[in-house]
Write a structure and sequence with these properties.
It is built from 5 helices and 10 strands. The protein is of the alpha+beta class. It has a domain of about 80 residues: RNA polymerase II/Efflux pump adaptor protein, barrel-sandwich hybrid domain (OB fold (Dihydrolipoamide Acetyltransferase, E2P), Beta Barrel). A hairpin with a 4-residue loop joins strand 1 and strand 2. The longest helix has 7 residues. The mean pLDDT is about 90.
């Protein structure tokens, strides 16, 4: 389950949470509630490297397909296969990818605390 006080959010609805030197990327509950039912999720392979703002995946709901953007740059070290196999996992606020990042501090400068994110959206 998502711990709201420990996340930073992008304006494109991705969140990032640091834990044990890794960064977990997922989707905010606000976005998931707007998306309603999920029909498809595409995530990158382990070892893929992305810069901040780059598309790392795609999620499709009943009425929309949305690209997923990296809130910080890094290299994918794990993919939540449970979320890919069982879309209900996403609704439970599971992370999508786990990354290593050397640029997290700089990249996170324009990310929002969860409460601030809710005011913007």
């Amino acid at each position: 389950m998502l711990v709201l006080e420990d996340i930073l959010c992008s304006r494109t609805h991705e969140y990032v949470m640091e834990k044990d030197g890794y960064y977990y990327i997922g989707l905010t509950d606000y976005f998931l509630n707007k998306l309603e039912e999920i029909g498809f999720l595409e995530l990158p392979e382990i070892g893929s490297t992305f810069t901040k703002g780059e598309i790392f995946g795609n999620i499709q709901g009943v009425n929309a397909s949305t690209d997923l953007y990296m809130p910080i740059g890094g290299t994918v070290v794990d993919v939540n296969e449970n979320a890919v196999a069982n879309y209900d996992e996403i609704k439970e606020q599971s992370w999508l990818i786990k990354i290593e990042s050397d640029t997290a501090s700089k990249d996170a400068e324009d990310l929002l605390e969860y409460e601030d994110y809710l005011e913007v959206v």
